[in-house]
Amino acid sequence: MGSTDAGGMGAGGMAAGGTDAGGTGAGGMAAPNPLARTIKLGLLVLSIGIVLSRVRLAWLECKALNRFFWVFLALVPLSIIWSINPSATGNRYVSLLSITAVCLAFTLLGWRRTRFQDVVRPVVTALLIASVIWTSFYPQYGIEVGTGTLQNSWRGLTSQKNQFGMLASFGVVFWLHAWFSNEKKWWIAFPFVGLSFMCILLSRSSTALLATTLSTFFMLVVMVAPASFRRIMPYIVSLFAILVVVYALAVLNLIPGSHLLLDPIAELSGKDMTFSNRAVIWDIIKEHIQLAPMLGSGYGAYWTGAVPSSPSYTFMGRMYFYPSESHNGYLEIVNDLGFVGLICLLGYLVYWISQSLQLMKIDRSQGMLFLALFFQQAVTNLSESTWLAINSAFAIAVATLATFSMARSLLEQRLIHRPSPPVKRRLR
């Protein structure tokens, strides 16, 4: 497996994709970046200022927020107590808080019902266009070097091909939604859908292709379904969610024999059930999980670099490369925060579905978008690690922003339909 890919893996993958969006260098070592830190600090200070200026609205939105998101924000700093690398856990938590503050501030100013996609969609599109231009002129920097599916796969301006595939997947979802919801004309939306889909194919990421296929299929079903069919929509959504969770638990070996149910997914992906032979990575991670199965080894404390002092250095001796992530978001959560963290994650996902379905009753288009993003991220995390992953900065930013945007949308509806207090007449 050392010469095949698992998201920029193998000897060639380490050379070509040794950096990530989180500002890490070769081998996953955190590289100081004064400019990035300055920007992050500036955004944090600005966001706190906005939150304090609208503290009452912020409080109401926080009350409407996904409850399990708050559980994560409490569990992560607590993990510093038992973390195998408290400093790394603390640093990652500060980054998580920065993203949270920015997303909260974003939803407090200039809010409108489509603000979420109106801001995210142009950013995704600009990054894809810039990636195509960059790679066309400088292919040595935008195309991976390696063997297997890694060979000649595009990574554009991202650190490796699977991140580029996920970025392109966002593009397909957002632009198809823009057309489905009549926010954009077909002659505007379709070229960008085509661009995004082309980028998925160029990335050669089977995970991005599968996640995009399922999420767009769901949107299509929702849009063409007759009114009478919408009553069973919660059951359809629940069935999709259960299938994803079953696969995630099968990877963790928590459901004996469940792999027999997953052959259709393997056929769709065109590969084995591990989506590019990631089973070896998962086995090594599961061995480490046994050291602290309930609470994990601390948020972000395991992948601290290909150095002898890091517990993840074992990959260099056993697989001769450094993958820098577990290549499964559910497994990564268990490794960091134990099965307690996995329960919190499942609660967060259930709450995400619940809020999306609530919103769908009053704003079908927006509810559909958030559910499509749920399926896209839930499937992506079957072979990539993006849940709470600072290294996948764009993915965690979109997911967190979606979480806050759902809360703000539901809050708006409650405020609009809240009955006015009775007015007392003055006695004359």
Protein described:
- With 428 residues, the protein is mainly α.
- It is built from 17 helices and no strands.
- The chain has helices at residues 10-16, 34-53, 55-64, 67-78, 86-106, 115-137, 139-142, 161-180, 186-203, 206-224, 233-251, 263-269, 279-289, 314-318, 329-362, 364-380, 393-417.
- Helix 2 packs across helix 5 (86-106) and helix 8 (161-180) runs parallel beside helix 10 (206-224).
- The longest helix has 34 residues, at 329-362.
- It is globular, with a radius of gyration of 22 Å.
- 46% of the residues are buried.
- Residues 1-30 and 423-428 have low confidence and may be disordered.
Number of strands: 0
- Determine the strand fraction and express it as a percent band: under 5%
Number of helices: 17
Q: Kindly, what is the distance between the CA atoms of the first and last residues, rounded to a whole number of angstroms?
A: 88 Å
Largest sheet: none
Low-confidence blocks of residues: 1-30, 423-428
Q: Helix content range of the residues, please?
A: 55-70%
Note the run of SSEs as H and E: HHHHHHHHHHHHHHHHH
- Averaged pLDDT: 81
Rg, Cα atoms, Å: 22 Å
How would you sum up the global shape? globular
Broad structural category:
mainly alpha
